[in-house]
Amino acid sequence: MAKQKKKGQSGQAKNYITRTQAVRKLQISLPDFRRLCIFKGIYPREPRNIKKANKSASHSTTFYYTKDVQYLLHEPLLQKFREQKALSKKIARSLGRNEVQDAVRLEKYAMPKIKLDHIVRERYPTFVDALRDLDDALSLLFLFANLPSTSAVPAKVIARCQRLCHEFEHYLITTHTLRKSFLSIKGIYYQATIQGQDIMWLVPYKFVQRVTQDVDYRIMGTFVEFYCTLLGFVNYRLYTSIGLVYPPKFDVASDERGAELSAFTLEGHRVAGAIDQKEDEQKMLTNGHGQIQNSETIQAQIDKIAQEAEVEDDTKEDENPEEQADSGTIDTFTPAAPEGDILPQPDLTGDEASTLFSNFTFFISREAPRHSVEFLLRAFGAKRIGWDAVLGDGAFTHDETDPRITHQIVDRPALAQPLPALQGQSDPKDQPLQAIKPGYIVPGRVYIQPQWIWDCVNEGKLLRTDLYAPGATLPPHISPWIKPTSGQYDPRATLEEQEPAGEADQDIEEEEENADSAEEVETDDGDESEDGENEVDAGDMDVASASSEAESEEEVADGFAGFEGTEDADGLSSDLDDEAQHQKELEAEASGRPIPVAKSKEDARKAKALKARQTAQSKKDEEIERQKMMMSNKKRKLFEKMQYSNNKRDLEAEKLRAKRRKLERAGKGKA
Amino acid sequence: MAESKKRKAVTKDVEEDAAVVSGDEFDFGQLDGTLSDDESASASESEDLYSGAEDDSDAVSIGSDSLPSEDSDEDILIPKEEKESNSVAIGASESAASGHHQEPENSEDEKPNYRIVKDANGNDRYEYDEIDPGDDSDYSVPDNAANTIGDIPLSFYDSYPHIGYNINGKKIMRPARGEALDALLDSIDIPKGWTGLTDPSTGKPLQLSREELELLKKVQMNEVATDGYNPYEPTVEWFTSKTETMPLSSAPEPKRRFVPSKHEAKRVMKIVKAIREGRILPYKPLQEEEEGEQDEVPNYDIWADEQPRPDHAMHMPAPKLPPPGFEESYHPPAEYLPDQKEKEEWEKQDEEDREKEYLPTDYSSLRKVPGYGRFVKEKFERCLDLYLAPRVRRSKLNIDPESLLPKLPSPDELRPFPTHEAGRFLGHQGRVRTLAIDPSGQYLASGGDDGTVRVWTLIPQREVWSVSLGVESAVNAVRWRPGKDTPILAACAGDDIYLCIPRLGTDSSPEADAAQAVLDAGWGYAASESSGSKPPSIKWSRPSSSLREQGVAIVIHLGHTAKTLSFHSSGNHFVTICPATTVPASQAIAIHTISKHQTQLPFRKRLKGGGSPQAAHFHPSSPILFVANQRVIRAYDLSKQSLLKIIQPGARWISSFDVHPTSASTAGSDNLIVGSYDRRLLWMDLDLSPRPYKTLRFHEKAIRAVRFHPATNRYPLFADGSDDGSIQVFHGQVTSDMMSNAQIVPLKVLRGHKVTGGLGVMDLDWHPQHPWLVSAGGDGTCRLWVS
């Protein structure tokens, strides 16, 4: 006989341990365990059989995989944690003795440094693995880069996050790997494709983030610590892979003047962005007086730079195309002969992206979100971006009147009324003003709202700019990630394309009925929805007319209802229909009402179709019911579960369609 | 040296009785003199001498020098001992020999260090002074009295008077063993140093001095063996722990004790200065910190030698967040905006219940978009999810739910089946127990508790013929004989079976004549075979004239009440069953042959197990008889007269069963339906298993009758009637494919019969050509159900 197995000695009972057990095994405190888990990427599991894993105890606990914890046991960080603990005891003792200086010294110098390099390597054995996991890292780091510094979030961390994020953005700009972006109500989503990995992250709008009490910054800080290390290495790899030097030169002074992206100077063997040269210039100018400059001197500098930039401009423009020509892009292989397989090639959106805005010179007005616009424009090929001086340093030009500017991004209600156009100028909005005041426009350039950039980027082509003119009602901004799938509502397609046959008619019917009933209710209630004035002044008149109208429509609807009711389910013939119609006409004649000939004919046809659909639908339902009867209980439940989500989706889509129909009809009515 | 000598002396005076040489007395004094001289006068000289001797000892080990000195030493010593012990004289020859040796040396020495003595022969004999090697010398002085026998046991000498030889080759005589008295005396007063041991080398009792014993003791105790070392010396308190109450000195404390030391201050200042100047660093240098800062920027490629790790089953990467949808846009399409009602509903909901954590809002331009208040919270929650949420790998079933639905034939395919009542046959008094539609499909025969058999036209429902078979006995079964051309009706009433030719329409139709001919054909046969072994109780006889008038052609007297009757498909045979328990087993089942007017009782004994027989049917095509008793159905091969199969439907009490009409011909196997009083309808596929293929339990009361449609290939229907007054119609398609099972679909529940006296539907029959059903009810009606 085989050896009898003991309960709780193998299998799930051994494979999982509770959190308490894990903490006890590792001999660390719970917060340290939490940090360790975050660093090492250890997460709780859900055992297949909780009862077995919990050794028949019934309380609910978190389970960790035993091998994970075993693996934590050999972590060098554990030693660091212990050192930290010892140090914190020392500090506490110093403080207890009132030796504050000692405590400060200890905290400053004796704090063990935690290096996470090895963990990055462990968690991401290959670079692609790291890229795959970059979504959360980027989202969190971008959030921290935009946070105000507090005691929980030291300024140093924020600066580091900002730096890393900007470095990453620089890589995207240089390689044109940004693919999509989306303005949501939460923030701005970006998606880049690096080495075949789609990385999506969310950047908040530049507002002070609201901080609630239930957010524990220590946890987020731990994540940020790890993500910073990760992104540092990723950046290093990305930069070196395209022949750039990492870290790029960072100009603190420039950054303090709000240069953001332009505060970095990319150095490399071959690739040198447009930013470098100007940046070098700036450095030469600013190095002498560093941070002591007051705003006036900065302004002076800016003006100077602006003038110089103009001079430089020509040479730069010459250089850029050459650089692009020899940047190692792959060629398209088109089959020469029809026989032969077509090999899939990476799509050329990189090239497209690099040329989308490359021919334009942009100017960002001061109310537009500079950073995101600049980033997006640069990532899609724009080289010359100027902005208002208040938006910070590093612009191509701060001069709004610069004649080279082709597009100006404004986010204002509506620009000044077009002054009498000068002859020879096509744009009616042009006006000959040199001093630009708010609300005035410079001739010879296109004024657009920021959404134009996003829509162009997502579409992959330049869109009509007149739709995005300042003050115009913008077309809806839609998410580029939702692909049209069957059964789901797609706002891009027309309503007719996606609604099931007859839904519209049915809807109209219902709506009319609803409207009727609603009207009836209203009349009963004394016309609540009417304007107050009306009620006072000519309430009676209105009510009377409305009610009479409702009455007549009600009649018609009733008639149809009756007609439907009398019809036999087995089938309906047109002659019957005609008979009914005739009958109704007779009735109407008898009662002395006008005969609703044309309308009723049309309606009858519709009603017939509707009826047919309904019977078909009910038949179908019946059939499914019958089939369900023959299913086993288990299968039926599964079926119903599966149907649930489908039904929900269908319902949602139907709701959206209904709304759109309503809106369209309202629009038509207006027109 | 003196000490050693003395010791030697001591030892020798005890042992040496066999003295060696007798010497003169004067020698002694001289010797002493030389000795004293030696010691006092030239210590340095003697030292030199010793060293010289030492040197020599290496070079000339057995040289003449050493030997004579030994000899002389011995000689010198001997006289000393001689004084005390006056013993045997020494051999002269030996001494002479020694003297010869020494001569040449003597000549060399200027100063004579020898004495000239006369030997026994009167010759001169030179006697030299003893050369004292000194204590430091490692030149071992052998004890001249020592035994030289080496390592051999003393017992070898037991038989000899001596116990060995000394260095000079002289026998060492066994020490005299004292008399018993001496021994006693010895034991009484223990001599000093007595150990009780025997010195192995001498054979004498070993005596050790006090010091030697001490030494031995120390060695044993692992103590320092040197003399004069005391490990337990008394403690000397150099500094007393006691404080004096009165100071020894009344001098006041000096000032320097209270004033900071200038010297110390100087030294401290020196250090302070060094610290200030940065020569001494009190703590770790600061620049390390800056270096650490620098380290945060990675300066190497961590994935320089990346190696993909195979995916582990337990590794579950965190799911990515879904991309934002249309409604999350800052300026979404208008249809995504919530209307007033939805907005209110959203606001009313608890924050955790909300399906979306935000409300789709339309901002007409980008500048109007406010900051998203929940941003930090959301990211925090994501962080929590990442490290706190248990992960589990779920395989999502991504199949079309429609594919789960079983493939059922479409209802159009199943049609037609009886759906509604088309007519009633009223006329019977009391229950209608049985009915049957004739093979042509025009007439319905029924029999009931009133003892009448009635034949009706199906449409319209009109009675065309009736016969009363006895008021007191109910008609339990009516069946038409298969075959369209001969309308013969068999009816069981009371203890008899009546074969009738009902008068349908005109009196003399060719069909009636043909039927009459079929029935009459057997008379002659019966007469010729009358002498056979026919059981006398069963008799085929002509009915009474009144009955004959009404159309009854033959009466078979069974003697017991037959409840069921079933024709063979050829129409020549039929089987009846008398299920009552009082019926003898041999007579319960009877097979009747019309052409021979013969009745056979094939079973002599009661069927084992399962109670009394309930129903029997012939197989439609092969010579098999199915007989059901209360629990099991048995199939008998009639040609071989053997049991073929036992079918166990699992029902408690089988009420009725039916064989699928096309069984085993088109279909792959036999199919039965079995109805039971315990409310079950069972579909048996005999090739599949002796157990039911499907058990249908849709009735609330017992099932009385089950019936397949006779034209199954056109109408694959079957129906059952129950005491709850309902008839259920099923679709039961049997395919000829062996692999696929029969397909059963419930079609219709026909309600209409009233339940009277606990009985609903008593019997059923299908129309042979149409999907019509007739049912006999306990309420006294028969009903026709059509599609």
3D architecture notes:
- The complex is a heterodimer of chains A (671) and B (787).
- Chain A has 671 residues and is of the alpha/beta class.
- Chain A contains 24 helices and 11 strands.
- In chain A, the strands form 4 sheets. A 4-stranded parallel beta sheet of chain A has the order 9-8-10-11, with helices on one face. Chain A has a 3-stranded antiparallel beta sheet with strand order 3-4-5. Chain A has a two-stranded antiparallel ribbon with strand order 1-2.
- In chain A, helix 17 (370-379) links the parallel strand 8 (361-364) and strand 9 (384-387).
- Chain A is flat.
- Mean pLDDT of chain A is 75; it is low at 271-295, 309-330, 342-348, 419-435 and 518-574.
- In chain B, the strands form 10 sheets. A 5-stranded antiparallel beta sheet of chain B has the order 12-13-14-16-15. In chain B, strands 7-35-34-33 form a 4-stranded antiparallel beta sheet, with no helix packed on it.
- In chain B, strand 30 (717-722) and strand 31 form a beta hairpin.
- Chain B has 787 residues and is an alpha+beta fold.
User: What is the typical, i.e. mean, pLDDT of chain B?
Assistant: 77
Q: How many helices of chain B?
A: 15
Major sheet details of chain B: 5 strands, antiparallel
CATH superfamily (homologous) name of one domain in chain B: YVTN repeat-like/Quinoprotein amine dehydrogenase
Which architecture of one domain in chain B would the CATH scheme give at its second level?
7 Propeller
Oligomer, anyone? Answer: heterodimer
Total beta strands of chain A: 11
Give the end-to-end Cα distance of chain B, rounded to a whole number of Å.
152 Å
Binned strand content of chain B: 15-25%
Indicate the CATH class of one domain in chain B: Mainly Beta
- The average pLDDT value of chain A, as a whole number, equals 75
